[in-house]
Amino acid sequence: MFMAKDKISNLKLFIALFVVCLCLYSNGLNNDFILDDNFLITNNAYVKNFHVSSIFTTGIFHFKPKESTADSYYYRPFQSLSYSLEYLLWGGRPAGYRISNILLHSLNSLFVFLLVYLILNDKILAFSSGVFFCIHPAQVCLVTFIAGRSNLLETFFILLSILAYIRWLKDSRKRFYYFSLLLYVGALFSREGALLSPLYLIVCAMFLKTKKNKIFLSILPYIVLGLLYFTLRNMFLPSDSLKILAPLSLNQSLNFLLRLQDYFWQLILPLNLKVALFNKHDVIKLVFYFLSSLIFVYFLTRAAIHKNKAIILGLIMYFVGLIPLLKLDKSLDYFGPVLSEHYVYNASIGFCIILAFYILRLYNNYPRTGETVFVMICLFFSAWTVTSGLYYKNELSFYRYVLSVDEHNSIARINLGNVYYAQKAYGQAINEANKVLQLEPGAWDAYILTGNVFRAEGKPKEAMESYRRALVFNPDSDIALNNIGLIYKEQNKYRESLEAFDKALAINPESLVALENMAGLLIKNKAYVQALAVCKRMLALDPHNVKGLVAMGVYWAESGYPKEAEFFLKEVLRLNPLEYKVMENIGAMYGNTGEIDKAVFYFEKALKINPLDPGLKKSLEKALMLKKQAGQ
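Above: the chain sequence. Below: its structure as tokens.
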């Protein structure tokens, strides 16, 4: 499309880049969902049931209450839309989503090649830039971490929009200009960093020696669209406001300069090594920062004197790509170096262009040496990428990796504690929570974790105290309120339990967990009319919610309508044929209505799945005895 003379070679290059990516990331295709992956895919009712209208009218973290201390209410509809389409194909299989990430990253690498080639007209330089961008280990965080999809989509649309704009500049065909504008909208729907697109377009137009008047008139619609998005985002869209127009402080500017140095070395050194050198040895960090400052000064001076387009383009791409860091000081410190690595994705394009330029220059003077260095860098980056992918195997290995790099990362430590809690390693879970509380006494999620452990250990008093402490530091924690409701439910305190669930749902009306628990409480206490309303709310959010369908089945069975109950319980078995507890419920229901043969059938079916369940064995024995008595 953008290089009519090279259609076949471009296709071959893309296939080669995709194959290389697939080889480098194949060791992580079947890795578990980690961190936000579960929130955004497996536990997201809008994604699982393709609520297109809801996707475009809610923030991506729609399940977090606006008033809570949630990290942000990002508006990323194309990210959720991509997950929804993929869920139809892959369901809950992580490999499919990672293949999509690999495909996007491969396309972005191809677009980097096309961009450099169209601006600098140097195919070898463009090829080297695209390859370095493709295999660089800094991209592992995005390609392997499925929740990093927004960055990949943003870059995809930005680069494609730039390429369409360049094509319009070259042959003046209006359709490419309109296509570029449309792609810019797609970039904005992917991620707010796309607001920087007009800067990239201006740079490209200047490199192609476009008249200033034409640049101004052509960029104006992009600016208008950006302002429209900015207005909608701040006033109407269900997301956090963009505070990009707030004045910058001196401290923010200085931090930005330090981040430029920090990410520069992060693109050169493995993260473990960089952190070990910088965080433990201030003198070494100072030397490295001073060295990188000299390197930047050298680049700028050389570019100014020799008007070197490759260096100028690389520096601009690097600096513009990191502009969002001006407003992200707190977020970067909160997430830590591993989780913040995705912010360098666009900036790494500039780094790869400069690296490719100097490798090519070496090759021109010393061909064999240049080839050897190119191959060695490719092998080094590839090995580093493959090794880094191993850290993302599952939540346990990932959080341990994050903490090996950043031992004070409270997000990783709390999540590691939750992994230990799920594995019933309660001592280790409490240990992780206590480490967080030593550094952050107001870490409400650490109190949630300790409460969960105490509750699992049969210590309701201590658990209740932990949940109440969580509410002190975060009064809008629907999780704490839900868990308080569970304790009251276990203590048969119906009114208190119902009140806690009500409060949780007032904060987060879409909490399926709270709805499930409330439905169970109401059915247990024979409040069938209220239970029906709650079940309907659950199924309106997620028609395939297993617990919601089970609750509906139990509701109809308890209300004396076995046929209606059978419909919902069999729907559960259609969605998950291994739900032996549902088979047991159906068997019990048939036993109560005198249909003993059917009861025996479902008890036997359940025992095939779980042959060691003593309750199932007793139920089957009782049903067989009744069948024998009926035969006599």
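Residues 94-120 form the longest helix (27 residues).
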